[in-house]
Amino acid sequence: MMKSTFTATVLALALSTSVEAADKVKFQLDWLPGGDKAPIYVCIERGFCEKAGLDVTIEPGRGSSEALTKLATGSSDIGISGIGALMAARANEGIEVTAVMSVFNKGPHAFFTLKGNKIDDFGDIDGKSVATSPFTSSNVYLPLVLQDNGISIDNLKLTKSDPGALGPMLVTGQVDAIIAWLTDLSRYERQAAAGGRELMIMPWSEAGLEMYATSLVASNRFLKERPDVARRFVGAFRKSVEYARENPADAAQAVADAVPELDAADAEASLSDALVLIFNEVTHAEGLGTLDPDRLAATWQRVAAAQGIEVEALDPESIVDRNFIEEN
């Protein structure tokens, strides 16, 4: 009896020491929880973060700009943000945040339309009525991708509406097309099918807007003061991305386990939509999470042109640190 009690006490102390030894990390989302954010939930719920000696908590976000601000001010340590937003913030404000890994190596921006709307290729969008959300970063790149394809934005009948209204507006024929992210493809497909229609998509990456998008970014202070913690986190996050690809249903369940108000089936659909932005021909050529110098430079060229910033205002290499991904 005494031996059993002693053993239990030793185990309890060991567990307590293990928990206390875990390094705390605040992870910053760029938007609301969902299947497209599955890797961080997999990392926590499926033990990848714990195995790396990390105690990770998630902070909600309301856009890349807010996420970057929270990282720069030290409210969070590492998180996700559009790399274009980071580039612009560094060029304009000198923000102390650095990209350490690519997540979406293709932009998520696209036109969604319906079969029968007489929009069969990108050029057919000319002169059509289009709805978009007021806050989406797609609006920044819209004039650029239109210009690349010989279309003036003045030719579009552009309406800005609440994100939740975009699908119904398209299905009911109030507009010919909407601007949305490919991470929401399944949701819009369901809405179209419910209305007896077939959804068609035109990704802007196929119309010339080739660039990195969502990336893993970190506070410079975090990278400088706790490099080993950052390195372990990047390794755990990368394993979580790979796990999500190989086990999408369980990865979606990890999201639902952490955020009970989210449905696992919906999370899996969103994850499936997001995976094509992570694993594709770019990944095959460059590797998972890498930031190729040429593609990075091309991304900055697009960001600078879209936001009216002089190209010379930023060396795109200054906003990345590849050491953390290359050592995993």
Automatic annotation (TrEMBL):
Stretches assigned to the SsuA/THI5-like domain: 38-251
- Would you say which domain of life the source belongs to? Bacteria
Pathway the protein acts in: Cofactor biosynthesis; thiamine diphosphate biosynthesis
Catalytic activity annotation? N(6)-(pyridoxal phosphate)-L-lysyl-[4-amino-5-hydroxymethyl-2-methylpyrimidine phosphate synthase] + L-histidyl-[4-amino-5-hydroxymethyl-2-methylpyrimidine phosphate synthase] + 2 Fe(3+) + 4 H2O = L-lysyl-[4-amino-5-hydroxymethyl-2-methylpyrimidine phosphate synthase] + (2S)-2-amino-5-hydroxy-4-oxopentanoyl-[4-amino-5-hydroxymethyl-2-methylpyrimidine phosphate synthase] + 4-amino-2-methyl-5-(phosphooxymethyl)pyrimidine + 3-oxopropanoate + 2 Fe(2+) + 2 H(+)
As given in the record, the signal peptide range reads 1-21
Keywords in alphabetical order, please: Iron, Metal-binding, Pyridoxal phosphate, Signal, Thiamine biosynthesis, Transferase
* Coiled-coil residue spans: none
Family, similarity comment: Belongs to the NMT1/THI5 family.
Assembly information from the UniProt record: Homodimer.
What is this protein's function per UniProt?
Responsible for the formation of the pyrimidine heterocycle in the thiamine biosynthesis pathway. Catalyzes the formation of hydroxymethylpyrimidine phosphate (HMP-P) from histidine and pyridoxal phosphate (PLP). The protein uses PLP and the active site histidine to form HMP-P, generating an inactive enzyme. The enzyme can only undergo a single turnover, which suggests it is a suicide enzyme.
Q: What is the name attached to this protein's record?
A: Thiamine pyrimidine synthase
Species of origin reads Roseibium salinum
